[in-house]
Amino acid sequence: TAGITQAPTSQILAAGRSMTLRCTQDMRHNAMYWYRQDLGLGLRLIHYSNTAGTTGKGEVPDGYSVSRANTDDFPLTLASAVPSQTSVYFCASSEEGEGPYEQYFGPGTRLTVT
Amino acid sequence: GQNIDQPTEMTATEGAIVQINCTYQTSGFNGLFWYQQHAGEAPTFLSYNVLDGLEEKGRFSSFLSRSKGYSYLLLKELQMKDSASYLCAVRDSNYQLIWGAGTKLIIKP
Predict the structure, then answer these.
(1) Does B106 touch chain A (CB under 8 A)?
(2) Is the pLDDT of residue B46 over 90?
(3) What span, in angstroms and rounded, lies between the C-alpha atoms of A84 and A97?
């Protein structure tokens, strides 16, 4: 089982360009999440989706958009990248609701905006 | 606001025991999670507490006191491979995880 995959592994992007980070899970989890992780800060939630067809804003949504057309895929788009979006991006998935439902993380995408 | 506090860095000796503390102030509480993250890798789940008390899993144990907004992760018989960051996260009233910045644990021989 692949679990959760992300692409690309790393990317250097010129400021002002757009980019889509891909995320796919094969665990049939309803909930999916996008986080960014910066040195000295905790994981910060960008957007989330509790089920296919619905999305919500997290703590730091500005400059990012997501879609959830089906259960497996949850792409994250940067419409016009800025240097402050340089970060490591993690996609995660979990069962939804109460209970010990841990989040499973993809390997991450390291993005540098120049 | 919501806040999770953990020490930034700790050092311990191989074979010893270390306790990593986490205090939290969040809007609602629906469970506390501990994750391990090796450098350059994704976080992986270690433990979950929702009721007060101690949960034991092999060399790792996690404790929760909801009234004090406090948890700790206890690692016994430390091994070099335990060198990693340990992340504390609280699931809030919206069922979203609020994350601490992590504690970098350095194990010395």
Answers:
(1) no
(2) yes
(3) 33
| Contact call for B100 and A42, based on CB within 8 A | yes
* CB-CB under 8 Å, B99 with A42: yes
Q: Do B87 and A43 touch (CB under 8 A)?
A: yes
pLDDT of residue B18: 98
Q: What percentage of chain B exceeds 90 in pLDDT?
A: 93
Beta bridge partners of B45: B35
For residue B107, list its beta bridge partners: B12
3-state helix, strand, coil in chain A (%, to 5): 5, 45, 50
Q: Is A97 or B88 the better-scoring residue by pLDDT?
A: B88
Distance CA(A76)–CA(A67), nearest Å, equals 7
Comparing alpha-carbon positions, the chain A residue that sits nearest to B34 is A102
Is B29 touching A (CB cutoff 8 A)?
no
Question: In chain A, which residues have pLDDT < 50?
Answer: none
Nearest Cβ partner for B97 among A40, A100, A103: A103
